[in-house]
Amino acid sequence: MKNFTLFTIFVLLVFSNMFAQQEKGIIGYNNWLNPWTEFKPNKVAYGTPTQILSGNINRDTKLHKRETYLLLGDVFVTDSTTLTIEPGTVIIGDFKTKGSLTISNGSKIIAEGTHTDPIIFTSSRSVKKPGDWGGIFILGNAPISKYGNEASLN
Questions:
Q1: pLDDT score for 44
Q2: What angle is formed at CA 84 by the lines to CA 116 and CA 109, rounded to 5 degrees?
Q3: What's the whole-number average pLDDT of the chain?
Q4: For residue 52, what pLDDT is reported?
Q5: DSSP-derived 3-state class of residue 122
Q6: Based on the number of CB atoms within 10 Å of its own CB, is 60 exposed (0-12), middle (13-18) or buried (19 or more)?
Q7: For residues 95 and 72, what is the distance between their CA atoms, to the nearest angstrom?
Q8: Which of 115, 121, 145 lies closest to 133, judged by CA?
Q9: Rounded to whole angstroms, how far apart are CA atoms 102 and 93?
C-alpha cells in the first residue's frame, strides 16, 4: 500500500509539472502566438501616412483602406457621429503627441476587420514598443468603481 501511495504521488507530480503554465506567459520560452498568427509588429513597415486625423470628428466619417492615417494628438469622435473603418485600413498613432482615438458617449465606431484584411493600429516609430501611442478609448454609461461616480480621462 505504501508503494502504491508513493507511486500515485509521483505520477501526480509529473502530470502537474507537464501542464504547468510558463512562468513568463506570452513572452516565455515558447510564444503561444507563433502557431496561429503572423503578428510581428516590430518587423512591418506600414508606409508614410497619407491623411492626418486631429481634433474633433463631428460628422459621420469613413476611413478607407487605400489611405494610411496618422492620429495626431487626441482625436475625438463627437456629436453622436459614426466613425467607420474599412477592413485593411492602417492607422498610425503619432509617437511625439501620443496620438489617441476617443469615441465619445453617444458616438459609434464601426470597425470590422477580416482574417485577410485586418484593421491595424500601430506606432509611428520605426522600432515599435508598447506605450508608443495613446490608444483607443470608448466612453459610455458603464458603471465605474470611482468614489462619486465621476472620473477623468487623462
A1: 73
A2: 105
A3: 83
A4: 96
A5: strand
A6: middle
A7: 9
A8: 121
A9: 12
- DSSP code of residue 19: T
Q: Say if residue 108's pLDDT is above 90.
A: yes
Show the cell assigned to 98: 501620443
- Chain center to CA of 111: 13
Element (H, E) at 7: helix 2-18
How far is it, in rounded angstroms, from Cα 77 to Cα 81? 7
Task: Count how many residues are written for the chain.
Answer: 154
> pTM to 2 decimals?
0.69
Q: At residue 126, what is the residue type?
A: S
Mean pLDDT over residues 92-117, rounded? 93
User: Rounded CA gap, 77 and 122, in Å?
Assistant: 19
Residue 14 dihedral angles phi and psi, to the nearest 5°: -65, -45
pLDDT at position 133? 93
